[in-house]
Sequence to fold (219 residues):
Amino acid sequence: MQLGSQDPGCLVDFNRIDWLTSSDTGDLEIVALRVSRYGPLHPVPCPLSPVPYPLPCPMSHSPQPKSTNLGALGEELVSRWLQERHWQILHRRWHCRWGELDLVVAQVDPQLPSRLLSLAFVEVKTRSSGNWDANGALAITDQKQRKLWKTAQLFLADHPLLADLPCRFDVALVCCRRMSSTREQAIAQPTPSIADNAALIADGYCFVLQDYIPSAFML
Fold:
């Protein structure tokens, strides 16, 4: 910060916290500024401090949920939807050196719950309204598909008992919308989706499963 003047005692307005040059020592001294709507600013000397006083934030904003939190809530919605359709959640966010599998799920035989029929690696894309990549569908590029394939191969190598099951790659597209008020959250009616109850309200957001694509790609 430049003082802008060499005159001892010169004040420089800087977010209502300023520095005062002592005419005796030349040291910098923090001063508080009393703001008068119709009059000049009046310096009020404060004790010397060897380190700059933390500047106040000019504007306060309510904390926004991290994108990772929104992604986890989107995965939670998809997990519930799959469980209602006789899929068992085996792993969430399984990762290795190649990447991460959002959900690893197994289809369960309704007549014999201990029997697994098939395996699916589910990539979940959670997007807010007005997104640029078709609710996440355009993010499943060829490079992303190859990365998921290598990650799935390592998963199967790490779980040989599942390696003989038929496997596929599914993609779930989740849309999230921020609720404007607590009252709206209480009376909210989720946007129509691909299935009943395919919606979740949490952390001030409404999550809706817009599309579920089984066997979305093959390599």
